[in-house]
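Q: I'm writing up a methods section and want to include an example of the input and output format. Could you take the sequence below and give the corresponding predicted structure tokens, formatted cleanly so I can copy it straight into the document?
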Amino acid sequence: MENSEVFTQNLYVDKIQSMRQTISQYILGQERMADLILTAVLADGHVLIEGVPGVAKTLTSRLIARLVDADFSRIQFTSDIMPSDVLGTNIFNQSNSQFEFHKGPAFGNIVLVDEINRAPAKTQSALFEVMEERQVTVDGIRYPMGSIYTILATQNPIEQEGTYRLPEAQMDRFLFKISVGYPSFADEVNIMKEHNTNRNFTKLEEVKPILTRSELEELRQKAQSVFIDDKMLNYIVSMVQATRTNSAIYIGASPRASIALLNASKAYALLQGRDFVIPDDIKMLAKPVLCHRITLTAEAELEGNTIDNVINNIVGKVEVPK
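A: Here is the clean output for your methods example:
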């Protein structure tokens, strides 16, 4: 590697570390969630975040959007929201007697979709094209999204009244599903201390971008060029195929899961300051990549088995490459 390439690599490592340090100043006790969202942004993937209200899902999304100098947009899904409320609509302009397209909140760089499971099926289907194709088609006209486009969707795992189960096809479009728990006792005490001494603790107006959009695009290209050995590819495929033969699993993960685990592992390695993937990267990301892509059998659920336990069992049994 030439000196200029080494300098560029070190520069990005420093910026990534600076981003993580800034996040840790505002988000206490949720380092894993922040790392996974950053990984998804680098891997050009979408994220489904599941957790009860008040565990910093929205705050983390807003903060990361500011750090990468991205346009942030927020959509609150409700039971009566329509596709046009999300994507936009054509409005007749009387001054020139023409219809003009007015973009909806789906047009942003990082789009937070709050309580995604509250929208009816018609609105859910409207997200399919924008999540997969990074474009919107209205009245036969195609409107592309920007080169940086990530949907961060949230849902409450407890409250089910007035919600709709997300279709399997849409779930499969998410790179990760992140389950966010409560902070530890010590972290919650620190959160209380910060709020007690600084009332503006969660206000992000003064946060300055660390990465420009062009730098983020270059960093994404670097993530694609991260080295992964053939043994690691075999490790990924063995793990995904094990979900199709496990007796506790009714529907296993598809090849899209293998590709997702590949891309995520390369982005996560870069986030750790490495230009190569190691088995620990794959093991760490196996659960958020696979958990929303498999379905347990009725017998396994009756026996008290959980998806997390089954994935842990698979990860523990698949031979780690040396």
